[in-house]
Amino acid sequence: KKRIVIKVGTSTLTHSTGSLNLRIMDKLAMVLSDIKKNDTEIILVTSGSITAGVSKLGLNERPKSVKERQAAASVGQCELMFTYDKLFSQYGQMVSQILLTRAITDNDLYRNNIINTFETLLTYGVIPIVNENDTVAVDELVYGDNDTLSAVTAKLVKADMLIILSDIDGFYDKNPQLNENAKLVPVVEEITLEIENSAGDSQSLVGTGGMSTKISAAKIAVNAGIDMVICNGKHPESLYDILEGKQVGTIFR
Ligand code: ADP
């Protein structure tokens, strides 16, 4: 059986108003449930809890204080999982929630427990949905971005592939928001300094990592022998092509 970790970013999951983009989430739930039925194990790493919480609470901007952001995450995580559970249920697919922090994955005992939980859930046919536990995480203990968390997760479960769904088609040789002539790089065989330097921050209001955290994630994945693909989350159907080995977005290998 193939085992795939898929990470979806806030800019894909939410509208510019901050509320959840149900059309995209529904498409994603459909495609993932379908792929799962075709003998592939799936783990979904999701962002979006703070943005969804801010929107649900009716706060007019992303809160500045940690406690307000964590409160928003607590509300938003609930909304996020409720929505996923509802959407995946339509396609007969069970999901579960796993909230992680760096403090957990760095601890041998906790890490082993998580691995056993993942394995058991996958045996049960569940799609585990992972997020950072934003309600307890504080600076020194956080991944801070789900790109890194998704690569660590892929390593934990010994995935065959990590697929990052972003708001952009892949990795470009220059930051495309700042350079009109930036070109998509289809294959990266080696993460050079040049590549690291061309990966900029997020230009969106809700995205956290930008391309630089995706390159860090690629390093973790590739070092663990796991190929990583970055592609556009607006078209979850492209996951079918990726699994058939077709060239979509950027592959790091
Ligand atoms: P997500 O929520 O999908 O993780 P991010 O905003 O965090 O989205 O990351 C994707 C963004 O990274 C792109 O929309 C783009 O603005 C920015 N970016 C910076 N450098 C690059 C690059 N070299 N190639 C592609 N995107 C880049």
Overview of this structure, please?
- The protein is built from 10 helices and 8 strands.
- By secondary structure, it is α/β, with parallel strands linked by helices.
- The protein has an 8-stranded mixed β-sheet, with helices on both faces.
- Helix 2 crosses helix 4, helix 3 crosses helix 4 and helix 7 packs parallel to helix 9.
- The protein is globular, with a radius of gyration of 17 Å.
- The mean pLDDT is 94.
- Adenosine-5'-diphosphate (ADP) binds next to helix 1 and helix 9.
- Adenosine-5'-diphosphate binds next to helix 1 and helix 9.
Question: Which features characterize this protein?
Answer:
44% helix; 10 helices; binds adenosine-5'-diphosphate; 253 residues; alpha/beta; single chain
Write the layout of secondary structure elements.
Blueprint: E1 2-8, H1 10-13, H2 22-37, E2 40-46, H3 49-57, H4 66-90, E3 95-100, H5 102-105, H6 108-123, E4 127-132, H7 146-156, E5 161-166, E6 187-188, H8 193-198, H9 210-223, E7 227-232, H10 238-243, E8 250-252
Helix pairs in contact: 2-4, 3-4, 7-9
Bound molecules: adenosine-5'-diphosphate.
